[in-house]
Amino acid sequence: MIRKPTPLFFEQGLKAVILLHAYSGSSNDMRILARRLESENYTVLAPIFTGHATGDPADILRQGSPKAWWQDTQDAIAFLRQRGYQQIAIFGLSLGGLFATRALQADSALAGGGTIASPVIFRGQTNVPGSFIEMAKATYRQENITGEDQAKRVAWLQAHLQAQLTAIQAFADTTATHLDWIKQPVFIAQGEEDQMIDPRSGKWLADAYPSNQIDYHEYAGAGHVLTVNSAHHELETDILAFLHTIF
Hints:
By secondary structure, the chain is an alpha/beta fold. The chain is built from eight helices and seven strands. α4 links the parallel β4 and β5.
């Protein structure tokens, strides 16, 4: 039996950080970064978005939606506040970055935060549809779902995926329209060899902010999932430096 990911909550210092994972990902995207932050005396919460990490990729489409994931984001913030945390930063990888950005817009009490390889400004090419289907096939193989059964499931995903991706793009577009609402410091990370979204996405986002509160970082030779790839040590160091300036 494959062990399914669970939300991460590492309770350490008085300053708290929320880490939101990518589309079709899980809290595992954030484990290395979370442990590094914990080692530097930060409390870290990495929730799992509704429909994710259930073992069936179809649940992302059946149960998940931008509305559900926005609720997940608000619930994570509320959870920390209920436990007494007042100094909270929020970051998101890819899809998670859309919700981290929206949280900074909606909640001026957050200290700051930002995005890691996130298409808040949605232009250029995306390989999300193809990679989602490949991820689904790999998941089904792990669950020993093969042949006609797998083909039927994949066909269902292909029939329903675009509607959700369109909803995500609409959420991103609305979020991008109101970047001027964000008064807190913002961190933006982008890999120069991002194979999932246009590698110019981070720069487009940095340029779209109306103020000079942006801490922008590019990582040479790094692909999309910066939290686990060749750039992860450098990313951790940069996020820690950013946190030091906002808390």
